[in-house]
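Example complex used in Figure S2.
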Amino acid sequence: MKRLLRGGRVVDPANGRDGMFDVLVDGDRILRVGRDLAPDSDTQVVELPAGLVVCPGLIDMHVHLREPGQEHKETVATGTAAAVAGGFTAVACMPNTSPVNDNAGVTEFILKKAAEAHLARVYPIGAVSRGQQGDELADIAELKQAGCVAITDDGRPVATAMLMRRALEYAGMFGLAVIEHCEEQTLKADGVAHEGFHASTLGLRGIPGEAESIMALRDISLAALTGGVVHIAHMSARQTLDAVRYGKSRGVLVTCEVTPHHFVLTDEMLAAPIPYDTNVKMNPPLREAVDRDAMLAGLADGSIDVIATDHAPHHYDEKRVEFDHAPFGITGLETAVSLCLDRLVHPGVVTLSRIVELLSVNPARILKVAGGSLAEGAPADITVLAPDLRVKVSVERMRSKSKNTPFDGWQLRGGVAATIVGGRVVYVNEDVSGFSRTLRRELR
Amino acid sequence: MKKDLLSIADLSCEEITLILDTTEAMREIGQRPIKKVPTLRGKTVVNLFYEPSTRTRTSFEIAEKRLSADTLSIPVSTSSVLKGETLVDTALNIEAMQPDMIVLRHASSGAAHLLSRICRSRIINAGDGMHEHPTQALLDAFTIREHKHRIEGLKVTIVGDLLHSRVLRSDALLLTKLGAQVCVCGPATLVPVGIERLGVRVSTSVDEAVADADVIMLLRIQHERMQGAFFPSVREYFNTFGMTKARVARARPDVIIMHPGPMNRGVEIASDVADGPYSVILEQVANGVAVRMAVLYLLAGGVEDEAAA
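Predicted assembly (753 residues):
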């Protein structure tokens, strides 16, 4: 069956498009993108309401789906349901499950669960080291063979410089990037919040930005040494961004990502509106305004390659404890698009086209997966955005199994209208008026 | 007054003054032959102590009993925490028995805020992690006011482990609110980042910091919280920062020496200073009972309730 999406603004930077185009989908592929495409007799025509944006499917390259092992927090099914509701057609999931995704068996299990859920595409990321213990390399060739698209010991850094060197060299043979959670652990120690005025007055143990940047500098140096590819995950500190810029200026194969919460929030959230709110406890921590502003500048000037959510679901019991004892992390899949549109596009920090690069083109390029483009013949992974939709964030409506977000109740401008994976409509936002009934009908 | 006493940061100058003025009246009760008034009769106060404490717990218990509250103390380290019950569940179970107030001492900063959000009972923070110890700061202010008849304009120097001290945070907030010039002093490894934004001066030279001080307050070197090498040895700490007679001599002649206890003699304070004529350390302890009586009384409804009854 063919389907013609008509009346949308197509933003497809990979093909140099930003304008009013029709998108013709044939089965699970893009057939054509052009003006005034004529439908055949068997083409379903979808007239999009005014003001919507059609872009290549968004890819979140940093999520925790928690399965296997922590299904009380999230499963592949609930996580991918949250993903498509958040406009993501694909997610890359971190290996710190239980057991760790350090072998083909776990990778295949995750892919099987993803196929059963049949919502967003799932790209497993394998462990760098066996059991993420930092001692010996995991079976990286086997992981790649089974479907892993990168390796990381996320949750913690690659333990030693020597192991990181070997990982970069070894993964390089298979064209895999090493994704690094940058944290110098002796400097982080038992810190729970950004080291600064707010942590000091609240009596919380601090984590300086240098705990992140020192490790980033180590890894950038090792990428230079080995010619390997390193991707700096969830960057939070201005010093780390400086390190990445330094690496890029020297031709090192380094890329980086930032989460919405690190370009929206600061450590002031520790004190207000809810003092010691465990939903603002994440690792890396929320930093100061100067760091947040550095992230905005990095997004604007192109130093930052990717926006990823670090979606980290936790059960409410686990978060309803003393700040010291709460686990790090917040959910992100269902708030990312609204935060990007409200905080980046509408204030003019970046263009919509750049958002698509950050959320789709670049993640696809770094992970070397399909997507990021509406080229003819590409998979029909399409996200339809509603940039002017008034959104009120509500945990009650979220599809993630966990509700640990500091954004509950926030009013934001911009949201997701629909999500299409492989030509199949997997999400339609009921709040977008004027949507053709045909899409909704297909969901049932 | 708000529902709870969680931190000095939440108090206005007027509220602080009200507490200190009420303390005067409460102290008088402690000087009577029959040290008991019926003010909190029928009220139930639970002292929930997750950390060992002799001074603070005893002080609260005596204050509660002098006000005729029904009071019980739960040293939690010996009960449900060993069975894996969360703080929230323990608090909700206590709440189910309808107490009026819960006095909480806990090793985690923000624990009192957590209870405040889930409990109907009034919460009094008796020390939460490295955050605050508001009744200590109130009794310190009361003691200073007793001796100096004012707080505004006084030079108060606080020396010791600034980083881990909840007393420091409460005292710095309270004394700066009331207009004192506060200088905090300790090894650079034990100075909280950004603390000067509270309006205090930071010094790493004790000789300079104590010069012309009206009040010198020592903070305990908390061995149990020291996980890193913050300073090389107790001996070197004493030589560099310890409060000796020679250092006290640099302060004003009428200086008073304070310590929230428990003291490490020969570490942060020399014995002859602790026991010397300018030491008001035991007065602090005595005033602690009166301050806690005032806080309990005011939180329980204070004047308005009494008038209504």
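Chain A touches chain B at residues 189-190, 195-197, 199-206, 208, 274-276, 317, 320-325 (CB under 8 Å). Chain A has two domains: 2-54+378-443, 57-367.
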